[in-house]
Amino acid sequence: MFFILNFYFKIGRRQIRFHELNYPNKFKKGGANSDFVLNGVVYQCFGHFCLHPLACTELGAFFSSSSWRDSSFDRSLRTYCTDIYGRNNASDAANDEFQKTDLEDTGDSSLFGNPSEEHGKERHFKFGDDIEAEESNDEEEEDGDLGDAADLLGSNLSNRNHGRGNDFKKVEIGEDVLRHSLVRDTCKLIQLSTSWNRKFEGELRYLVRSLNPLQVCAVLLSQEDERIALRFFYWADRLWRYRHDSSVYLVMLEILSKTKLCQGAKRVLRLMTRRGIQLCPEAFGFVMVSYSRAGRLRDAMKVLTLMQKAGVEPNLSICNTAIHILVMGNELKKALRFAERMVLIGIAPNVVTYNCLIKGYCNVHQVDQAMELIDQMPSNGCSPDKVSYYSVMGFLCRDKRLNEIRELMKKMHKDSNLVPDHVTYNSLIQMLSKHSHGDEALEIMREAEKLRFKVDKVEYSAIVHAYCKEGKIQKAKELVSEMFSKGCDPDVVTYTSVLDGFCRIGKLDQAKKMMQQMYKHHCKPNAVTYTTLLNGLCRNGKSLEARKMMNMSEEEWWTPNAITYSVVVHGLRREGKLNEACDVVREMIGKGFFPNPVEINLLVHSLCRDGKPYEANQLLKECMNKGCAVNVVNFTTVIHGFCQKDDLEAALSLLDDMYLCNKHPDTVTYTTLIDALGKTDRIEEATELTMKMLRQGLVPSPVTYRSVIHQYCRKGRVEDLLKLLKKMLLKSRFQTAYNLVIEKLCKFGYLEEANSLLGEVLRTASRTDAKTCHVLMESYLNVGIPMSAYKVACRMFNRNLIPDLKLCEKVSKRLVLEGKLEEADRLVLRFVERGHVSAQESKHLHN
């Protein structure tokens, strides 16, 4: 392989031209087939080309990250290096695992480029296509059993990294870096991505190449949306003459660990391997946290296997992350086995490890085991901290076990030399108040006051709120008065809690007086205070008064928020004032507050229930045109309203509108229309709609089956029903489909058709099948055909199903009346043979 181009490749931190390798006088050793020394590292030269693995790796990463990279060259270089040095089992296995998804398949060097075009041309692609693809992949896998998590931590690992602690250092970004002009200009260009052009892209390329690693990290941290940060990260990684520093990768992973973008985090990890960045356990830990936030705990634990394949040894940090994930997934036993495996491979647990396990014991109500673990910590060389005790105290607070809490505080001081301080008492007050234990929280506060700890308005407000939730308003008022006497003026949170308490018990006059008292004590109510009062008015049937008060908001110098509007809308809706509620919704949208689909559906459903589907449809279209999030449930509700008014043309027209709005109907939508068409004897249209639903891959629900079966059986179109039913059963299995068909046919008098389907039912011979047979037998008796009922009973006996004895007595009596004594006796003998009727009872039946 010959290289004549004057390109650069990196070795360590210095750039070397290829032609420089021809001059041995620049190195300790030179010439072809000789060694040279650079930065204290001896490299071997062969034909003026560096064959050191680091050089080959860096060269491959360099060309693969360039905008003009040639895939054939990349493969040739990889093959060349492999032939000379062979494969490294650990690292190559990791590369095979990580490089299943490659950036070369989805992107290029342009922020808006098209991968199908040639690299030499200007390209433009939509910003964020990678993220949308990853978000769709995030939901492909479902979480299952975590398996044996301890087995993911190999016992054959060496000890060399276990005692070092963490080589990982968190990147600290100062305010001066965040406010740097280059960082601010880059962020502004990223925000203009929707109106992108070539000029902006060129400026952004120039800025990115001018940024140092800390400034790139600052750009990522400055983005409010993590998806935008990830899009910028991907785009910058494809730039020619630019490479992300290792700190940038770690910051990106740390950002993603706070989101559910687990596929993006895993892809960044793959990029680190591809670019030759040294992996650390903390990088894998960030990916695990992202998976756990997405609810995919099994995939989170699989990251440990991925880490071992990459040849990265676990440390204490990654083990604590794994234990925390197992505890949060209610897998305490597996977390304990994982902790045991940690010790076996030489990783000593610290206080964080024990605190996670203590939290796990408390989550499963095993406080005694949690206390035993606290007692074992000193013998294992790890002293418990206050968090260890707070976890147990939090569980005891839920059950109001104050005596045990006090004993635990004494134990904390005696055994661990941890003196209960203001934080301890504050935590106890907050936890007791959270569980509505106001008296117990007040008792703890009195103890803190005796110990001369300063109690501020935060503790008072928490107890006042607890009293108000319990309905003890008088005690809450006394506590507020005590605050005044001690010079601790209540704030808006305290007043709002008392006001909410008055509203809960229906004392609205007292709530209004509390509002006036706030102004008197120079405490201005905020939007939350007014919303609380409006909610109380609406709950007590005074929604119009709440509406007037909201209209006076500008005079009162407060601004309603989205929750304020929602409270008034639902108050008006509950009182049946639907026109006023619709006006408030329109005003709400005009102020820039968009109701969510649930709120829209409640109002639309109320309009349809009141016989106003046209008004509901108009409101739905207005909300959709204004940019509100409207879903398929909202459309289905309006369609159901049209069907109740027997206006199927309007319902079918709205179904077409759903396709135009890209709101695809679901099974409930189709079932509603199918049932309505069947009721109006439009069976062919209902059948066509059912076939359309099946072609779109929707699975029929039990309600769909019942609706279709009912309408076809009512018309006696059994053959058409059976054809359609077979196609529906191919999509989803409905065990009692034929049972339902027989029962409906019996109801509408088609007994022979029902009898012909009895074989489909008796295949399973369950209790449900017996019930269906009884329905058919009773139907035959009602029309005076006891012989057919007798035959159904015989078929039941042949399938080891025992018919109802009382029903068979009726059949036997009717057979005797018709002179068919032999069949009557045979039916009785069937019961005797199976031991369900004694000989004496059989004689009675014969008589």
Task: Give a structural overview.
With 847 residues, the protein is an all-alpha fold. Among the domains are: 1-86, no CATH class; 315-406, Serine Threonine Protein Phosphatase 5, Tetratricopeptide repeat, CATH 1.25.40; 761-847, Serine Threonine Protein Phosphatase 5, Tetratricopeptide repeat (Alpha Horseshoe). It contains 46 helices and five strands. Helix 32 runs antiparallel to helix 33 (632-644). The protein is globular and about 100 Å long. The N and C termini lie far apart (109 Å). Residues 1-144 and 155-166 have low confidence and may be disordered.
Low-pLDDT stretches are: 1-144, 155-166
Write out the strand line-up for the largest beta sheet, numbering strands in chain order.
3-4-5
Instruction: Specify the CATH class of the domain at 315-406.
Output: Mainly Alpha
Helix vs. strand class: mainly alpha
**Mean of residue pLDDT values:** 79
Describe the global form. Answer: globular
The percentage helix is 55-70%
Radius of gyration: 37 Å
Distance between the termini: 109 Å
CATH homologous superfamily title of the domain at 315-406: Tetratricopeptide repeat domain
SS summary, helix count: 46
Largest sheet properties:
3 strands, antiparallel
CATH fold type of the domain at 315-406: Serine Threonine Protein Phosphatase 5, Tetratricopeptide repeat
Number of strands: 5
- CATH A-level architecture of the domain at 315-406: Alpha Horseshoe
Protein name: Pentatricopeptide repeat-containing protein At1g09900
GO biological process, one term: mitochondrion organization
Region (Disordered): 104-128
Keywords: Repeat
